Each structure stands twice: as structure tokens, then as C-alpha cells.
Amino acid sequence: MSNHEQHETAHRPVQRKEMSRRQFLSYTLGGTTAFMMGGAVLPMVRFAVDPLLAKKGEGNLVKVVEESKVTAEPQEFKFKIHQIDGWYESEPELVAWISRGEDGKIFALSPVCKHLGCTIFWNTKGHNEYDCPCHDARYSKDGKNLAVANSPLDEYEVVVENGIVYLGPLVPNTRS
Question: What share of the chain is helix, strand, coil (3-state, %, to 5)?
Fold first, then answer.
């Protein structure tokens, strides 16, 4: 390339590639469509993700019964908890079988059979056992599985303060 050719190419005006009307319309409509879709989709994504990002509260204890009313014989006590599922708040009624163990400590068992989730009852057949009416699963007074079910009944966390029995979340059975 000669010096004259370099000089000539250096002074040529830059060729601008112009956008056609069709390209302008395509870009404008595409951008507008993307903006509108984002406006419609983002609230749905936030609705789905917000409950996952919410801080988990610690398990609250619920007042259930006076300590003096608890005997060695299991008794059914009903109580309500405040529950929040996403944006839905409710107060379901739960049940616990509460009694004193041989060591004198109070414990509370869940009434949900570990076989298929039916509700168990105390001493319905006169054998001093928890019985499940659905498939004849049986549990000892401490919740130990005796027949059919393959694991013991769950326990509620129990705290006794100032003569009142408070129950917390379910924990695996430690008595059997």
C-alpha cells in the first residue's frame, strides 16, 4: 500500500450502517413486549419465592394444662396453635396424650399413628395400650410400637413452668 492510498483511506468518511424502518419497528415492539411480559411475570415469581425467603420463627410453646391435672393415666388434651402457611393464617386444634412417666416426668405423645396416620386412642380394648382403629396398630403407654407400626409415636416437646404444662413442636420419641 502506498502512502497516497493510506492518506486517501484515512480521509474517507465512515460509512454508517443505517437502521431500516423494519428493524426499528422490530426492536421497538420486541422491547415493549419484553417489558410487558416482565411486568406480568415478576409478581408471580415474587409470590412464589417470598415465603421461602421469610425468616423462620422459633417453635413457640403453647399453654395446655395445669400440672396438677396430669396423672399417670394418659389423658387427651386439646389445644390450638397459631400457624402461618405462606400468606394463610389459621389456628388449628391439635391433640396430645399427656401423662406422667414412671420417673414422674410429664410427657406428651402425638395421637397420629405411625402406620398410616390414623388417630390413636388410649385403652379402647382394655389392655392399657394406645390402639389404632384403622389397622389395629398398638403402642405402649410410652408410645413404643408393639404391633403393625414400624416406629414409635412422636412426642411433643414439654416444658413445665409455674405449674403449667407447655407443649412445643413434635420431636422423635425418646422414651421407647
Answer: 25, 30, 45
How many of the other CB atoms lie within 10 Å of CB of 98?
22
Round to whole Å and give the CA distance between 74 and 101.
Answer: 10
**pLDDT value at 1 more than 60:** no
Q: List the one residue out of 168, 103, 94, 167 whose CA is nearest residue 141.
A: 103
Phi-psi region of 136 (alpha: psi -120 to 50; beta: other; left: phi over 0): left
The CA angle 65-133-118, to the nearest 5 degrees, is 65
pLDDT exceeds 90 at position 26 = yes
Contacts for 64 with CB less than 8 Å, ≥ 6 apart: 77, 79, 96, 98, 108, 165, 166, 167
Could you tell me what percent of the chain has a pLDDT over 90? Answer: 37
Greatest distance between any 2 Cα atoms in the chain? 115
Q: What DSSP line would sit under 26-42, residue for residue?
A: HHHHHHHHHHHHHHHHH
Model confidence at 107: pLDDT above 80: yes
Give the angle subtended at the CA of 170 by the CAs of 176 and 64, to the nearest 5°: 105
Provide the CA 94 distance to its chain's centre, in angstroms.
16
Partners of 151 in beta bridges: none
- Closest by CA to 155, choosing from 169, 171, 168, is 171
